[in-house]
Structure formats: structure tokens, C-alpha cells
Write a structure and sequence with these properties.
Order of helices and strands: HH
Mean pLDDT: 79
Distance between the termini: 48 Å
Length: about 90
């Protein structure tokens, strides 16, 4: 996370904590909005940096594993499906 955003988020979070302690609803709403705004700004910058760097090492929001099938890359040993016996227990 960029340092300038981290500091802004930490300040907004501290203000939210103080508002919670004082149980001031108006102050809580303002502090929550400030924290949301700070987090959104940081998120946008992080997302833009990832896009500029060429993505996230082959991962996308639709396919977080980065594999062609959408499952974990490599698949591990014994990737074939197997039928197994099971017993359904009803309580």
C-alpha cells in the first residue's frame, strides 16, 4: 500500500475509533465516510498500479488461480475424478 494512503487511512481509522468511544453519531458518520474515501483512493491507486504492471501475474478477478480452467494451476497429483463410497448421515 502506498505510504501516503496508509497514513491517511490510519488517521481516518483513529478518528473513527475516537468517535466510537465518544458515541457521537454525527462524528461516527463523518469518520466512516472519511475512512471509506481514504480506502477507495488507495484501492484505486493499487488497482491502477497492477494494471500498469501488466496485471496480477496471470490472475484476474474472474479467475484468481491464473489457470486456463479456472482451478488451481498444476492440479496436483491424481487430478482425475474418482467415485468413492459414502454414507449419508441424517440427524
Amino acid at each position: 500500500m502506498p505510504a501516503n494512503h496508509k497514513e491517511t487511512i490510519e488517521k481516518a481509522l483513529e478518528e473513527l475509533r475516537e468517535a466510537h468511544k465518544s458515541q457521537d453519531i454525527a462524528r461516527l458518520d463523518t469518520a466512516q465516510a472519511a475512512l471509506t474515501e481514504a480506502w477507495n483512493a488507495a484501492s484505486q491507486e493499487i488497482y491502477a498500479a497492477q494494471q500498469a504492471a501488466g496485471g496480477t501475474d496471470g490472475q484476474t478477478a474472474e479467475n484468481p488461480y491464473g489457470s486456463a480452467t479456472g482451478g488451481p494451476a498444476g492440479g496436483g497429483a491424481g487430478t482425475e475424478a474418482q467415485d468413492v463410497e459414502f454414507e449419508e448421515v441424517k440427524s
